[in-house]
Amino acid sequence: MDSSRLLDIFRTASGAREAGLCPQLPTQSGKAPKPSSPLHGMKSVIVGIFPYFCGAEEGEICLYARGRDYHSIIAPRLAAAAESLSAAFPGARFLPGCDASPLNEVRAAGYAGLGFFGDNGLFISRRYGSFVFLGTLATDLEFTAPTCEPEGCYHCGACRRACPTGVLSGGDKRAECLSAITQKKGELTAAEAALMRACHTVWGCDVCQLACPHNRGVEIDPLPEFREDRITHLPRSLRNASDAEWDAFLDGRAFAWRGREVLQRNLELVCFTKATENGILIRESEIKGDRK
To answer: Is residue 95 located within the same domain as residue 18?
Structure first.
């Protein structure tokens, strides 16, 4: 099997900045795919790296979600790569995957030699740091390349020390990361609300990434689509927006799947709620005057 030709076709058709071959099938469950699984019969994985980092300017939306929804950007690229590879390798199967996949993309990328696993659970590219999306093509082609053992994390503890919830420190495993808290439906606890206010985030969290020494001086070469239509904040006008205005704003955004209610709650909480000295949250409309 001409693996170099296969990777060249994949990179050209998908636009992946880097690509590698994982000569096994690392699944989310850790088990071999069942006959009913779309992965049944697949033997290897082609993995592509798609950087999104455009700079770490301040904002209340995490870095990955500032551009358009990455699924809508990477999925067509993977489909194009699958079509090109099917033409070049008649009879072979290529199954695209991006995020919602039975494959463990992080492990596949590590085993393909494209980077390593950070202590925060993120995949880290040596060129682009952890500011990357991963795309895969599972295939029934078999490769003889050895599985790489991902190494590189300094295990310096920077991500654990920086984490605002302490979830990376091995303490209470029931604690959720701040990113998960921002995506939580329903009412937040007082502690969760105060944490979001303190970190001033309406969606996601980049604290562990920004603390990681592997993300210093990374190459900035995002896909062109990630440079377009970027936002760093939720428009304040959404506070009193109509359903149609909310729908128009959410269209094509990475956080649209969570729905208006969660985003509207977060906007109100972080941008229109003040905290008293004893930590009690009160609505802006209830404040008679800001304390100095």
So the answer is: yes
Chain CA centroid to CA 5, Å: 29
Amino acid of residue 111: Y
Contact between residue 18 and residue 55 where contact means Cβ atoms under 8 Å apart: no
168, 179 in Cβ contact below 8 A?
no
Give dist(CA 45, CA 274) in Å, integer. 50
Domain shared by 89 and 198, yes or no: no
Half-sphere exposure of 62 (CA within 13 A, CB side): 20
Same domain, yes or no, for 83 and 174? no
Q: What is the pTM of this model?
A: 0.89
Q: Specify the pLDDT at position 284.
A: 40
DSSP for 215-275? GTT------GGGGSS--SS--GGGGG--HHHHHHHHTTBTTGGG-HHHHHHHHHHHHSEEE
Residue from 194, 47, 10, 54 nearest 123 by CA: 47
The pLDDT of residue 145 is: 75
